[in-house]
Design a protein that fits this description.
CATH topology of the domain at 527-628: Beta-Lactamase
CATH superfamily of the domain at 527-628: PAS domain
CATH architecture of the domain at 527-628: 2-Layer Sandwich
Structural class: alpha/beta
C-alpha cells in the first residue's frame, strides 16, 4: 500500500472521540520525534443516540486533502453506534487521503488492532483458574461495535471451551457508558446474587457496575473491565482490567501513517497484544498478584536511566505510576536490572521530592488557568454581538496559553445548512496577534503554522451548529471543554439576541399594520347587516356595531353596558353555560337562540352564532353575531287568506296565529292585542283543535308541511333563505 511522497512538513489529521490524555500525549510525543504536525478533530460517536452529541460531529466534515496529508482515525469509538458498512461509507469522503484506522479493521486501510479475544479470555482464565469461579455474567457493548462483538464472542467461546452453562439471562445489554453498567445490573435484579463474577466489555461499564454493587448488594461479586482507562486504577476496589497498550498503539499509528505517506509498504493489519492488569476487583489482594503494565515498566526504566545520567528533569506522574501499578521495591530491583539498592532508594527519594514540587507547580498553574478562564467566560457571557465577542477573545485567550486562535462561523446556525463553503473566518490570532487574511474561507487552514499541533473544536447547541474554533495544542482537557461550551453558549445567546431584536422590529411593524387593519375591521363591522357584540369574561360589551345598537335600542353615547342585562332572565343560565363551554375550548358550531330585552322592554328572539376572542393565546371573550328571527319567521312561515278560510279561523284567531308564528309568547300576544292572557290561551286551543295538533311543535310542523305541500320544498327553502339574505 503506497502513497505519493511529500517533501514539506506533514500535517496529520486525527479524528477522535473526546479528549484522552494518554492518547493525545502519546501521539504528540511520537509526532514530534518524526517531525509531524497533528490536527485533532474532536467530536463524538457517529449516529450517537444522545441528541446533544449529534451536532458536534460536523467537525468530521472539515478535514480534506487541501490542508492535511494523512489521517489517523480512532474508528473504534467513532463507530460505536453504527455498523462497519455504515462506517466505511462515512470514510469514503477521505478515500483520497492516506489513512490509518485504530481499533477497527477497515477495508484497504492499514488497521492497528487490539486482540480483543485474547484479552477477554485472559481475564476469564484468571477468574476460572485462580479464583475457581464458574458462574459468569457479561455486560456487552453496542451491538454494531466490532470491539464489543469480538469481546462478547470470546466470552461465549470460553464458556463453551470449559463446558460452562450459557444463561442468556446473564448476558446483559450495554453501550460502553458508565450508566449502562448500572442499568444492566438493575435489570438483572435479584438474580445478580446467582453469579460469581461480572465480566464487562469495557472499563466505563465495569466502574458503573462496581458502584451499583457497592451501594446495593451486600454479597461479594467480582467485576472485571477492559481498556485500563486512568480512572480504573482509582476505583474501590481497584479494577482488574485489560491494558490495551494505548501508548504503543498511538506510537505505531504515527509510524505507519508516516511510512504510508512516504510511499513505503505497510501491513494491512497490525495486532497489539493486550496485558492483563490484576487488581482487587477480581478478588485478588494488593500483593504479588498485581502486575504493572508494560507502559508503566517502560516509563520507570526510562526515568531511572535518565537519573543515572543525571539528566532526569521531568518526573511527571512517575510516582503515581509506581504506586497505582503496585510496583513494589522488590519489583524495582528486577525491573531496573540493578543490585545497587542505594541507587534505587536515591532514585525514589528524588522522584518523590520532584513530584511534590511538580504537583505544587501543577496546582498553581491549574489555579491560574481556571482564574483566567473565569475572567474570559465572565466577559464573553454578556456579549450581545459577534464583534463584542471577538474583542474579548483578542484580549483574553492569550492568558490561557493560546497563541493561535481561529474562529469560524456558519452563515446559518441550523444543522441542515452545513456545507464548508458556507463558513467564514471571523477572527484569526497568530502568535497572539490579530491577522486579517484576504481569504476568509476554510482554505486558510492550509497555512497553519508549521511545528505546531492544533485542535479543532465544534461550536454547537442541542440541535444547532454555529461553527468551530482552531487553537494550538495544550495538554488541558478541562480548558478545551469549558472554552468550547462557553463559546457555544455565548454565540447561541448572540444569535438569539439578534433574532429577538429583529423579531421586535418586525413585531412593531406588524402591530402598526394590525392597528390599521383593526380600524378598517371595526369600520367594516359597524355596517354589517348582522348585529355584532364583542363581550369579555364579565360579559361587559367591548364593542357593538350599528345594528346591535338599534336592535337593543342603545344610543351612541351610552355604550358601557353588560350583555347579561339584555338577556331575558329565564335565558341567562343557558347563555352562561354556553359561554363556559366556549371558554373550555368546545367548538360551538350550531346556531343558538336567545331572547333579548330591548331598552323599551320589548322582547326579541335573537338567532346567533359565536366565535371566541383570543388574547395572548387565551380565550378572553366572545364575538356574537346574529339577528332578530321574528321578521324572518313572519315572512317565510306566513300563511295566506286561503289558509284562514280553509280552516275556518275567526278574525281574532287569525291575529293570534300570525303573532304565534312570529315567536311571540302568550303574554306578549295579550299585550299586543289588548286582551287577557287566558283569552289568548283559549284562542290558541281553538286553533290547535281546528288544525288537529296538540302542541306548539306540532303546530309549526303543520304550518311547514302545509307550505311545502302547497308550494313545494324548494320554494319553501328559497322563501326562508331569501329572508335571511335580506336581513
Amino acid at each position: 500500500m503506497r502513497w505519493k511522497n511529500f517533501n514539506k512538513r506533514k500535517k496529520i489529521g486525527v479524528l477522535i472521540h473526546q479528549y484522552q490524555k494518554e492518547i493525545w500525549e502519546s501521539l504528540v510525543a511520537k509526532a514530534n520525534q518524526v517531525d509531524l504536525d497533528l490536527l485533532f478533530f474532536v467530536g463524538r460517536s457517529l449516529n450517537s443516540p444522545y441528541e446533544t452529541e449529534i451536532p458536534q460531529n460536523f467537525i468530521y466534515e472539515i478535514p480534506d486533502k487541501s490542508f492535511i496529508d494523512g489521517l489517523i482515525i480512532f474508528s473504534g469509538t467513532l463507530a460505536n453506534f453504527m455498523s462497519k458498512n455504515e462506517f466505511e461509507n462515512f470514510l469514503m469522503k477521505f478515500k483520497d487521503i492516506p489513512s490509518v484506522s485504530l481499533f477497527l479493521e477497515i477495508k484497504e486501510v492499514p488497521s492497528i488492532l487490539i486482540d480483543n479475544k485474547r484479552g477477554i479470555k485472559g481475564v476469564l482464565q484468571h477468574l476460572y483458574e485462580k479464583h475457581k469461579l464458574r458462574k459468569f455474567a457479561f455486560i456487552k457493548g453496542p451491538d454494531e461495535n466490532i470491539d464489543a462483538i469480538e469481546r462478547y464472542d470470546a466470552f461465549i467461546e470460553f464458556l463453551k471451551e470449559k463446558k460452562l452453562d450459557i444463561n442468556s439471562e446473564f448476558i446483559l445489554n450495554g453501550d460502553f457508558r458508565f450508566e449502562a453498567g448500572i442499568e444492566a445490573l438493575k435489570n438483572l435484579g435479584e438474580r445478580i446474587k446467582e453469579v460469581d463474577a461480572i465480566v464487562c466489555a469495557n472499563d466505563n461499564m465495569a466502574i458503573g457496575a462496581l458502584n451499583y454493587i457497592k451501594e446495593n448488594i451486600k454479597q461479594q461479586i467480582f467485576i472485571t473491565g477492559f481498556d485500563n482507562i486512568v480512572s480504573s486504577e482509582g476505583t474501590i476496589p481497584p479494577l482488574t482490567t485489560v491494558d490495551i497498550n494505548l501508548k504503543m498503539m498511538c506510537e505505531k499509528s504515527i509510524e505507519v501513517i508516516n511510512e504510508l505517506i512516504d510511499g513505503r509498504d505497510v501491513p494491512e493489519k497490525i495486532y497489539i497484544e493486550p496485558t492483563l492488569i490484576i487488581r482487587e476487583s477480581c478478588g485478588c489482594k494488593n500483593s504479588e498478584n498485581q502486575h504493572p503494565s508494560i507502559m508503566a515498566i517502560e516509563k520507570v526504566k526510562d526515568a531511572f536511566s535518565l537519573y543515572v545520567k543525571n539528566s532526569l528533569e521531568d518526573t511527571g506522574e512517575l510516582l503515581n505510576l509506581i504506586i497505582d501499578h503496585g510496583i513494589k521495591f522488590k519489583n524495582l530491583i528486577s525491573i531496573l536490572d540493578t543490585k545497587d539498592i542505594e541507587k534505587i532508594i536515591d532514585f525514589l527519594e528524588y522522584v518523590t521530592t520532584r513530584t511534590k514540587q511538580s504537583e505544587k507547580n501543577r496546582l498553581n498553574n491549574f489555579y491560574n488557568e481556571i482564574l483566567m478562564l473565569r475572567i474570559l467566560t465572565r466577559d464573553i457571557s454578556c456579549d450581545i454581538s459577534i464583534e463584542e465577542l471577538k474583542t474579548h477573545l483578542i484580549e483574553k485567550v492569550g492568558l490561557l496559553g493560546i497563541k493561535d486562535f481561529y474562529l469560524f462561523l456558519f452563515e446559518r446556525i441550523f444543522i441542515d445548512s452545513l456545507y464548508k463553503n458556507n463558513i467564514k473566518l471571523e477572527l484569526a490570532l497568530e502568535n497572539s496577534r490579530k491577522v486579517n487574511p484576504e481569504d476568509r474561507s476554510i482554505k486558510i487552514l492550509s497555512s497553519l503554522r508549521e511545528g505546531e499541533n492544533f485542535i479543532f473544536l465544534p461550536l454547537s447547541g442541542k440541535t444547532d451548529v454555529y461553527g468551530f474554533i482552531v487553537i494550538n495544542y495544550l495538554a488541558n482537557d478541562l480548558l478545551y471543554e469549558i472554552l468550547r461550551e462557553q463559546l457555544s453558549s455565548t454565540i447561541k445567546y448572540v444569535y438569539v439576541f439578534q433574532e429577538k431584536t429583529e423579531t421586535e422590529k418586525q413585531l412593531e411593524k406588524a402591530l402598526n399594520n394590525l392597528n390599521n387593519l383593526n380600524k378598517k375591521y371595526f369600520s367594516m363591522l359597524e355596517y354589517l347587516p348582522s348585529a355584532i357584540f364583542e363581550i369579555n369574561d364579565d360579559f361587559s360589551v367591548e364593542f357593538l356595531n350599528k345594528n346591535a345598537k338599534e336592535l337593543i335600542m342603545v344610543d351612541e353615547e351610552n355604550t358601557k353596558i353588560n350583555f347579561l342585562d339584555f338577556v331575558f332572565p329565564d335565558d341567562r343560565n343557558r347563555f352562561y353555560e354556553l359561554y363556559k363551554k366556549m371558554k373550555n375550548g368546545k367548538e360551538l358550531s350550531e346556531l343558538q337562540e336567545l331572547r333579548l330585552t330591548k331598552r323599551s322592554g320589548a322582547i326579541i328572539h335573537f338567532l346567533f352564532n359565536t366565535v371566541p376572542l383570543i388574547k395572548e393565546k387565551e380565550i378572553s371573550g366572545m364575538r356574537i353575531s346574529g339577528f332578530d328571527i321574528r321578521p324572518i319567521l313572519s315572512k317565510s312561515l306566513s300563511v295566506d287568506e286561503e289558509f284562514f278560510k280553509e280552516f275556518s279561523l275567526s278574525p281574532r284567531e287569525k291575529e293570534v296565529l300570525k303573532l304565534w308564528i312570529q315567536g311571540y309568547q302568550i303574554k306578549e300576544i295579550a299585550s299586543t292585542l289588548f286582551i287577557a292572557e287566558s283569552t289568548v290561551k283559549i284562542h290558541i286551543g281553538s286553533i290547535y283543535s281546528k288544525l288537529d295538533v296538540k302542541n306548539k311543535a306540532e303546530f309549526f310542523e303543520f304550518i311547514k308541511n302545509y307550505q311545502i305541500k302547497k308550494f313545494g320544498y324548494e320554494s319553501f327553502l328559497f322563501s326562508i333563505l331569501s329572508q335571511l339574505i335580506k336581513n
